[in-house]
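Bench log. Compound arrived from synthesis this morning; before running ITC I wanted a structural hypothesis for how biotin sits in the protein. Inputs:
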Amino acid sequence: MSKISLLGFLEERAGQYVSGEEISRELNVSRTAVWKQVRKLEAEGYRIEAVPRLGYRLTAKPSRLTLQELLPKLRTTSFGRRLTLLDVTDSTQNELRKLAEQGAPEGTLVIAEQQTNGRGRMGRSWVSPAGKGIWMSLLLRPPVPLPLAPQLTLLAAVALSRAIAQQLPMLEIGIKWPNDLLVGGKKISGILLESAAEDERLSYVVVGLGISANLDVEDYPEGLMDKAISLKIASGATVDRSELIAAVLEQFEQLYKLYLEQGFAPIRTLWEARSVTLGKQTELYTPQGTVVGLPRGLDDMGGLRVELPDGSTRTVYSAEVGS
Ligand code: BTN
């Protein structure tokens, strides 16, 4: 008997006692085998109550991510099907880059419970405490030219926002250009794309996804909570991280297929519909200087079209977005 089948059985009957006799009959194993597997699950952090004459009851799941729990939830073809789950690493970006260089296939995923040197955009660090968030990197090998890489950043933001909206429908999620997800004006996740190219074509892209799922107030360094919030604090409930990971991978794979089949146009429409940047006076700090104006939409490449006070339009491809 695998642990997965016992776990699945207990989860199916959540809140109820199931007798050892029934489990051994349904799963076709001895009662000693059931007991041994219960002990193993407990060692992994599951809490299983055993009451004489009533049987077993699952009362708590580990706060750690486990493959036993995650794998049965995956609904994807390739995304997350090669999966490395680490307790701690400096950055999942580094781990996945190594695998990419060794020829790992598209869809390979690295997840870590904790990052000691998580990276954010613009050279910033990313707070990644143990067991609290979703810190993961996904490998893509898109057959597109290097200048189109920003489109994947926008695609990732749409995928994340759809997955979170599906899991936590009470939250209103907006995308701030290019790919920050906000709830009530505060950042709940971040996306970092790092790519390698050969002859102007992308050989691979490492998509880093950081979701502040279950961080508590004390997990944030001073001052950061003015700008950031976790899904748990925003929604008032602990987030099931493995459900959310499965939803993100499903949305991501679906949108990526759509992108490969139909190009950027449908992604652009979805992004624009969720944007909180469009139509609002915005300051953009570009490497060439500050641009102030009204963002009107995306261009074909994924750049932000900004209407300037003199009525002309300027497209911005890389910038820090102010207020
Ligand atoms: C941002 O600055 O908004 C992007 C943050 C990206 C964080 C994720 S967490 C998983 C992956 N590993 C990293 O070191 N960074 C990304």
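What the model suggests: The two ends are 57 Å apart (CA to CA). The chain is about 30% helix and 30% strand.
ITC booked for Thursday regardless.
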